[in-house]
Write a structure and sequence with these properties.
Length: 536
């Protein structure tokens, strides 16, 4: 059986494609670097992270991008012996504009080097590339409207329908007329278009309702690629919008795929909210549903209805490989462990090094935690509602403006950080810096006050999350007993819905290491390993 979510933790907007017997899913990474996560499977049951292809400045530079901007909704496809990856780099979040720039990169294999990007357009986000049977290629994206009116029939002014234009792969540019082919349904907020062809029909799937609890996968079809598109008899192929009891909420935004023997599946993103406030600390995750084609040439979920389920039949017998409950990361191998990412910058040598001190990850303190330009923060996704993270730090801060430690982080407005610093009276000190959803000001609170004097030498730091609760711990390296520091903190605010609420942000929680030095001297800290343990 396939057990959902197949990609737990922050893995939204899943685009799936098959190359022979191999399946690949590309998901959004937003402001996290390198850009786009690609997972691989041979059986649709077991998935492995194999690549983040946007890894150099010529492909992606997100310094200055606001939170929840950056890489939105990639589309991965295979044609002409190449993998094609389409993505958006969004430069603006608030206000009437988005400034969404769309690009295409290619590679001969997923694990290889990906090309420099070809610029496509900036008329909207969620781009997708469709390779037609006659060899022509078609580019679709939602159209963003900054005005308080529209003339396309779309139910929401800003989300102004789906645009179609031909892509000339030879000249690497769009050609021919631009056509608005689909306004969406009354649900509104139409986005995430994907095209495919079957039995003489062009099928268009989109997302609607926004990426919150009214989310859907909407389906339509036409005999010609530019429409007119008729609606699915049920309108929505996948949605949990009218079923708050369903374990997989926020279901929408996905793509169709067929197995070599013709079995049908459809990806979608989902959320698993925590009671009682329905906050998703794991962000938007990736799930997969089995589908069937009926005699009317429409696609339906195999189990009936539109509500996604946790357990789904696999195409063939496959044994799910149990992932270890605890993962220890070694920083002695010269490369950052694959589970870790950093924020925005294509110049990671400015914020960390694995060679400056053998066996350690050294962070160079740069701008403040939450900076949109250059902050030293290296972290991995939270994948379980209950977990514990531990590390060992060595640092010698000289002033209170130098801080390094362990953080439970979502964005500038939502984080808790246990930091080693220097206090004028207490000396070398552990303190807690929190921003529990204070949008738009981003003001800090200090739940442990001035902090706890810790003396000299290495320290072990730990964070333990149980659902909506977070507790920090510390001890001198090698000591037996852990010591609690600070009160129980609100872990639920480190979520999509925390702070400014639903639709205010849409990435996911990370746990990891940070350093800042706002004196400008680049002082940070050395970290000897990292352990992540699932507690449920």
């Amino acid at each position: 059986m396939i057990r959902n979510p197949i990609l737990p933790g922050f893995n939204p907007d899943p685009s799936i494609c098959r190359v022979g017997e191999d399946y690949y899913i590309a998901t959004s990474t937003f402001e996290w670097y390198p850009g786009v996560q690609i997972h691989h499977s041979r059986d649709l049951v077991n998935w492995t992270l194999v690549r983040r292809p946007l890894e150099r400045k010529s492909q992606l530079d997100m310094r200055g991008n606001p939170d929840s901007c950056g890489v939105w909704a990639p589309c991965l496809s295979y044609a002409d012996g190449l993998l094609w990856l389409v993505y958006t780099d969004v430069k603006r979040f608030d206000g009437s504009f988005k400034d969404a720039h769309n690009y295409i990169v290619t590679a001969s294999c997923v694990e290889g080097e990906w090309s420099d990007p070809a610029y496509v357009n900036s008329s909207g986000f969620d781009p997708s590339l469709f390779h037609d049977e006659d060899g022509r290629k078609w580019f679709v994206n939602m159209q963003w409207n900054h005005r308080p009116e529209n003339h396309t029939g779309a139910a929401h002014n800003a989300f102004d329908g789906i645009l179609l234009q031909e892509w000339d792969a030879g000249t690497k540019r769009l050609v021919g007329p631009v056509k608005n082919i689909f306004p969406g349904t009354r649900q509104g907020l139409v986005e995430a278009p994907h095209l495919f062809r079957r039995n003489g029909w062009y099928y268009l799937t989109t997302a609607e309702g926004g990426t919150g609890y009214d989310h859907t996968v909407t389906m339509a079809r036409s005999r010609t690629i530019d429409g007119r598109y008729e609606m699915h008899p049920d309108l929505y192929l996948i949605t949990a919008k009218d079923h708050p009891e369903a374990p997989l909420q926020r279901a929408g935004h996905g793509q169709y795929v067929e197995t070599p023997d013709g079995q049908a599946y459809h990806t979608h993103l989902c959320g698993r909210p925590l009671a009682p406030q329905r906050r998703c600390t794991l962000g938007r995750e990736t799930a997969l549903q089995k589908c069937i084609w009926r005699d009317d040439d429409w696609l339906y979920l195999e189990h009936g209805g539109p509500v996604p389920v946790v357990e789904v039949p696999a195409p063939h017998e496959a044994v799910a490989i149990e992932k270890p409950a605890s993962v220890s990361y070694d920083f002695s191998k010269g490369a950052l462990p694959a589970d870790f990412q950093w924020l925005r910058t294509p110049e990671p040598e400015r914020i960390f090094s694995l060679s400056a001190r053998s066996g350690y990850l050294r962070l160079f303190g740069r701008e403040s935690i939450g900076s949109w330009f250059e902050q030293a923060l290296v972290a991995r996704r939270q994948e379980h509602h209950d977990f514990r993270a531990e590390t060992v730090i060595e640092a010698e801060p000289e002033v209170y403006q130098q801080v390094a430690g362990l953080t439970y982080y979502y964005n500038r407005y939502k984080f808790h950080a246990l930091g080693l610093t220097r206090h004028e009276v207490l000396g070398r000190t552990l303190t807690i810096l929190s921003c529990p959803g204070d949008y738009p000001n981003g003001n800090l609170t200090f739940p442990a006050g001035s902090g706890v004097a810790v003396g000299e030498g290495p320290l072990e730091l730990a964070a333990e999350v149980h659902g909506n609760d977070l507790q920090f711990f510390w001890r001198p390296a090698g000591a037996d007993a852990w010591q609690v520091i600070g009160p129980v903190l609100d872990a639920g605010v480190i979520s999509d819905e925390g702070g400014r609420g639903e639709h205010g942000s849409f990435t996911g929680a990370f746990i990891g290491l940070f350093a800042f030095d706002i004196t400008g001297r680049g002082r940070g800290g050395d970290f000897a390993g990292f352990r992540y343990t699932a507690l449920s």
